[in-house]
Design goal:
Alpha-Beta Plaits; five-stranded antiparallel beta sheet; single chain; globular; 38% helix; Uridine Diphospho-n-acetylenolpyruvylglucosamine Reductase, domain 2; 4 domains; binds flavin-adenine dinucleotide; eight-stranded antiparallel beta sheet; Uridine Diphospho-n-acetylenolpyruvylglucosamine Reductase, domain 3; binds D-malate; binds zinc ion; 469 residues; 16 helices; alpha+beta
């Protein structure tokens, strides 16, 4: 079918306001926020509800039109950007913003896929509950995008990844049929766990249009500390100590190297080091609870003991929420600071926590020897064994040099990760960024199982072609 016919039929389904046709309007949809990928599309379709998504998908199925689902377009792996062929329609969920139901007794919330993560958090807060998923992009990413990438963020240590926070999904299949799996059940053993197939599938199996999410009791207080240490091994040792002493009250445990803090101080206004001295590594630790009275003493005692044992070198405890937030601003400023400072080659890796410190030691040595002079930007959600072990190139690096170094560094870093039983994609998704790498590190049996699922659900290969597989 010709584009103008397709567009004509789509406009009947979603109305003229539901289509973006002009090049300027399409700009923010056809490129990613990092400026790494740029594609093109005949049309951006913006349905208002699952029924319209279903009608759009039926038409795309009939006309064999490939579809790229898009939420907030904050992804790190190019998963929501179409290719350059001009044949892939973008299906944006950004008009589907309804909180459908909040049930504080069942501790659940049902939302359209296009609701911003920050709005899900606020809706939970309004009924005295807590939705724990938290990440730097929460003001612009959508819950559908979070589910499609199985996003992680800073509260995984206590509450799990997005997968652990979803009880039910509504999904429009590639042929337009709607699967209503919006169950708010904590027990449901009626066969295969279908929702798990779609969570983390990065738009390659269907369009997530709604979800039932788990809510938690709202913590009424939190304390945080900024810690200075000499090595990642010390940071890991502190993590173990705090887990033993604080149990579930330890809600976040992040690490960053001194170079990350330097970057944030150079590029984020008002950012200042919380400690007087300089340390090779820093940790940001947070405790929270529904009964907060004892938290400051608990954290101070645990950190005091770690200082005395020489596990850490220095620390400062933030007592009120303003101080806690300013520590988090340092941590969450790293993404933006990296973008301003250069062109990052990003690694989003996971390792067993027990092997993480040895990995950093070995990888640092390997990179200093094989890629001398390239700054390593090492930070991440160390409590989950997830590191963003990045390398920063100058802003004006030539594209060919960037591509050459990306391939060489990926190979070096990912091989070390694989040798230690790790994963090359912890929380950002595979997208187009790691699609080719995936084949090297997944076993043929795993790849085959994934391809069988893809063929079964999307036999015409219309869902987000060129991503993940
Ligand atoms: P998009 O970028 O629009 O899409 C991401 C993928 O999901 C694409 O493959 C797309 O096709 C698919 N998709 C989107 N919506 C749907 C849908 N409804 N149905 C089917 N498929 C869909 N990520 C983390 O995990 N942890 C972090 O700590 C973190 N920090 C970040 C900090 C910053 C400052 C930024 C900018 C990003 C960060 N991210 C982080 C990455 C990003 O925010 C997440 O990947 C987020 O889950 C993407 O949501 P989105 O709505 O923007 O999805
Ligand atoms: C974060 O944890 O801040 C992001 O996931 C990592 C990044 O920006 O590379
Ligand atoms: Zn992260």
């Amino acid at each position: 079918m010709r584009n103008h016919e397709l567009i004509e039929r789509l406009s009947h389904l979603v109305g003229d306001n539901g289509l973006v046709l002009d090049a300027e309007g399409q700009g923010p949809y056809v490129r990613d926020w990092l400026g790494k990928w740029q594609g093109s599309t005949p049309v951006v379709v913006r349905p208002r509800n699952a029924t319209e998504v279903s009608a759009v998908m039926r038409l795309c199925h009939q006309t064999r039109t490939p579809v790229v689902p898009q939420g907030g377009n904050t992804g790190m792996s190019g998963g929501a950007t179409p290719d350059g062929s001009g044949a892939q329609v973008i299906l944006s969920l950004n008009r589907m913003k309804r909180i459908r139901e909040v049930d504080p007794v069942n501790n659940t919330l049902c939302a359209d896929a296009g609701v911003l993560l920050a709005d899900v958090q606020a809706a939970a807060r309004d009924v005295g509950r807590f939705f724990p998923l938290s990440l730097g992009a929460e003001g612009s990413c959508t819950i559908g995008g979070n589910l499609a990438t199985n996003a992680g963020g800073t509260a995984v240590l206590r509450y799990g990844n997005t997968r652990d926070l979803a009880l039910g999904l509504e999904v429009v299949l590639p042929d337009g049929r709607v699967w209503n799996g919006l169950r708010g059940l904590r027990k449901d053993n009626t066969g295969y766990d279908l929702k798990s197939l779609f969570i983390g599938s990065e738009g390659t199996l269907g369009i997530i249009t709604g979800a039932v999410l788990k809510l938690y009791p709202a913590p009424t207080g939190r304390v945080a500390a900024w810690v200075g240490a000499d090595t990642p091994a010390q940071v890991v040792a502190l993590l173990s100590r705090l887990q033993s002493v604080c149990g579930e009250r330890l809600t976040a445990f992040e690490m960053m190297s001194a170079r990350c803090l330097d970057l944030v101080m150079a590029h984020v206004s008002g950012a200042a080091s919380p400690l007087a001295g300089r340390h090779a590594y820093y940790a940001l630790v947070e405790l929270s609870d529904t009964e907060p009275a004892g938290l400051p003493a608990l954290l101070e005692t645990a950190l005091g003991a770690a200082l005395e044992a020489g596990v850490i070198q220095d620390c400062v405890v933030a007592m009120n929420d303003t101080q806690v937030q300013s520590l988090w601003r340092l941590r969450e400023g790293i993404s933006q600071a990296q973008v301003r400072a250069g062109k990052a080659i990003k690694h989003d890796i996971a390792l067993p926590i027990s092997r993480l410190a040895a990995f950093v030691e070995e990888a640092d040595l390997a990179l200093v020897s094989d890629f001398p002079g390239l700054p390593i930007i090492n930070f991440g959600h160390i409590g989950d064994g997830n590191l963003h072990y990045n390398v920063l190139l100058p802003l004006d690096v030539a594209p060919a040099e960037y591509a050459r170094l990306t391939a060489a560094l990926n190979r070096r870093v990912h091989d070390l990760v694989a040798q230690r039983g790790g994963s090359i994609s912890a929380e950002h998704g595979v997208g187009q960024l790691r699609r080719d790498e995936l084949r090297r590190y997944k076993s043929p049996v795993e790849m085959d199982l994934m391809l069988m699922i893809k063929r079964a659900l999307d036999p015409n290969q219309l869902m987000n072609p060129g991503k993940l597989l």
